[in-house]
Design brief:
alpha+beta, Chemotaxis protein chec, 7-stranded antiparallel sheet
Amino acid sequence: MAHDFAAARAAAQHCPELTGHGEARGPRPEERAELLTAWRRDLARALADDLSPLLSDDRLEVTIDEPDQLTGAEALERIGALAANSLLRVGAGGGAGGETALLSFDFATALALTDRSFGGEGRMADNAPETLPRSAALMVEEAATMIAQTMTRASYADARGEVMIRSENAARLKPFAPDTACLMFTLVIANQQGCTWRASLVVTAERMDRLLPGAARTPRPRADRRPATGTAAPFANVPLSLHAVLAEFDLSLARLQTLSPGDSIPLTMGRQ
């Protein structure tokens, strides 16, 4: 027999923050804005120190502007068809884990940075070449590696960053889908001599949430730790120089002067 019971009071309806389901949603918009501001500030300060040795030990001031919210296609359009582009891995190495970001310098900036790194003034030229010189390409790769490592320290204290691949065409790197929501930052690097250099940094909104300090991240699997031996990598492939002394004997200066290529000196080997 069915019974209908009236509730003594209204059933409680708890918000996600109390029930624990809010953790999967991440920080609230205002909290995220504060975290992003702190991340930009800390990254800018660290870059000012880290990039200084690369630019003739200049005293640098780095600022990172508020990001523009764009789609992936819009970000690639802003970068253009020709630039010094690097796809960065932030937060891990060895081909696994971490987040990716797209870093771009226009050719004029790449040449100016190269000039400053070799002791020049680092002024921006009016005309940029269609192809970067080898020295400028190496300079951009070094700067990109430093930026990846600095970004990693700002988000992951126990990992490293690296340049995954470079291309003068950003679309070839396939950093994100055309319709993906992205954040485009402008890095402004200035020295005390009045030079200013700019770079573009593009991160998808989803990846940016995981890069923010305090963001919930999926723990990376621990590497299989084994005792290091001389027959296992990486030590097994380290080249070593080996010198063996076969004999020591006295030789007069007169005899030494008469030696010529192809001469042989008999050795008497003692039995042991």
